[in-house]
Amino acid sequence: MTWIHAMQNFAVTFGTVTLHLQEYQITGGCLLREQGTAEGDAAIAAVYPKGTRIAVKGKLAPPAAQFAQVAAALDAAVRSGATRTVWLGGLRCQGMRLIGYTLGLHDVAAEVTLVFCTQTALDTGDTP
């Protein structure tokens, strides 16, 4: 029996550098304000949505000069605070701000993780 593992490809561009990433994880949540009722029970009085965080992971192949370009492009993106639209398959993520990254050289390929945050609701808008 042969199993074929399909590779995902989520492209994210920073200046002249385009990363092709393979997996992602979405974290969303909200803050609740609870208040006591006249009967002594707890009731939710307000809900405040928090920003959605998305971590995208992948690997970079050689040449080694590319690692320096990617590191410089990611660092510039974090420092600029610029937002972008990122497509994860059919999921459109607008207003994405890069808030963190890791880039580590392991064996031949480098591993990269990008952490984005957005206040804009995710949707399944028209694909590019």
* Alpha plus pi helix count: 1
Summarize model confidence as the mean pLDDT. Answer: 83
Give the total of beta strands: 9
Form type: elongated
Structural class: mainly beta
Order of helices and strands: EEEEEEHEEE
Written overview of the protein:
The chain has 1 helix and 9 strands, in the order ββββββαβββ. The chain has one helix at residues 64-80; strands at 10-14, 17-21, 23-27, 30-36, 42-49, 52-60, 83-88, 91-105, 110-118. It is elongated and about 70 Å long. The protein starts with 9 loop residues before the first strand and ends in a 10-residue tail after the last strand.
What features would you highlight for this structure?
mainly beta; elongated; single chain; 1 helix; two-stranded antiparallel ribbon; 128 residues; 54% strand
Task: Indicate the topology.
Elements: E1 10-14, E2 17-21, E3 23-27, E4 30-36, E5 42-49, E6 52-60, H1 64-80, E7 83-88, E8 91-105, E9 110-118
Antiparallel strand pairs: 1-2, 3-6, 4-5, 6-9, 7-8, 8-9
A few lines on this structure:
This protein is mainly beta and 128 residues long. The chain has one helix at 64-80, and strands spanning 10-14, 17-21, 23-27, 30-36, 42-49, 52-60, 83-88, 91-105, 110-118.
